[in-house]
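Backbone shape codes
____________________
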Amino acid sequence: MATGHTDPRRRERILAAALDLIAEEGVAGVSHRKIAARAGVPLGSMTYHFTGIDELLLEAFTGYANHVVAVFERHLAVAATPTEAREAVTDLIHTLSEGPRRDLILVQELYTLAARREPYRALCARWMRRSRALLETHFPPDTARQLDALIEGLTLHRALDDDPPGRSLTREAVGRVTGEG
């Protein structure tokens, strides 16, 4: 494997390893040493690329938030009518709730950090603004805000439910929030 400056993907591997460790052990379980070992990089690479664990975690979570916004974009971009937009939101909720357990854990770890620390709260606020802006391409601002909360709540409930409700209940909830019918 390439070393030093000849390894252009080292920083990305470190960030990916950090997210994997957070998903497995929680934020409290991560350390420079564990992340370096998971990423297959020398421990010194950690301080070369990041000023500290906070910078590393914030950048890793920023990348994760960008990933989720991209999922929103992929679902909502195909909708051309209000009916298609409602169906895209339904699909989005099911995609997120049926996705990897890792994603559910990462979101909850980020929310826990955001509840306690301003930089993570600001990251979540930027993430919410971006997801609402995507929703606002199809719905009025107040409806987009309500839908964003519905997406978060239904995703969490569906992911944690032993017998999650089907698409018809999701579709009905999206319809109620968007004033369908």
Q: What stands out?
A: The chain is about 75% helix and 0% strand. The chain has a mean pLDDT of 93. The chain has two domains: 1-50, 53-178. Residues 143 and 178 are 6 Å apart (CA to CA).
